[in-house]
């Protein structure tokens, strides 16, 4: 008697597309990643960028990550993945690498925040407050990228 087991029935769940992307973990993290990353870029740009070497890296990481995450979100919404398992690998590698880059950017932004409080480069307390908010959002964004990377890995 033939077995009723089929390999197609044991495959992993399909990748979401359309509006289901916003309801499925870990793909639902993409929109908050973009939102928080955009705030990092806006807040750093709102300061006078007193430490261009430190904050230049922060702005590069936040802007490039936002744009690539937006492209990834668009590709999921419109179903460009065609339910290929390679997209899970791509997604996991991208979010893992971006989490590492964002961690470096968050630490550099925290350093710029500490330096903006103590040095006479920025006399306004507003710059310290903007730098503090940028540091906060940088660490939140790092956490979101880490959650996304591990969620897709353990899915």
From TrEMBL:
It comes from the Eukaryota. It is a multi-pass membrane protein. The keyword Transcription does not apply. One of its GO terms (molecular function) is structural constituent of myelin sheath. GO terms for biological process: myelination. It is found in: Membrane. This is MALL protein. The gene is Mall.
């Amino acid at each position: 008697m033939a077995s009723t087991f089929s390999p197609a029935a044991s495959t992993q769940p399909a990748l979401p597309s359309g509006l289901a992307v916003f309801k499925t973990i870990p793909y639902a993290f993409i929109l908050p990643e973009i939102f928080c990353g955009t705030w990092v870029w806006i807040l750093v740009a709102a300061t006078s960028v007193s430490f261009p070497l430190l904050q230049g890296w922060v702005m590069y990481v936040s802007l490039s990550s936002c744009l690539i995450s937006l492209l990834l979100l668009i590709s999921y919404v419109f179903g460009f993945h065609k339910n290929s398992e390679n997209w899970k690998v791509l997604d996991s590698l991208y979010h893992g690498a971006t989490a590492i880059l964002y961690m470096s950017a968050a630490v550099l932004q925290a350093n710029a925040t500490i330096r903006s409080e103590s040095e006479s480069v920025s006399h306004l307390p507003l710059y310290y407050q903007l730098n503090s908010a940028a540091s906060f959002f940088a660490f939140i964004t790092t956490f979101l990228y880490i959650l996304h990377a591990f969620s897709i890995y353990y899915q």
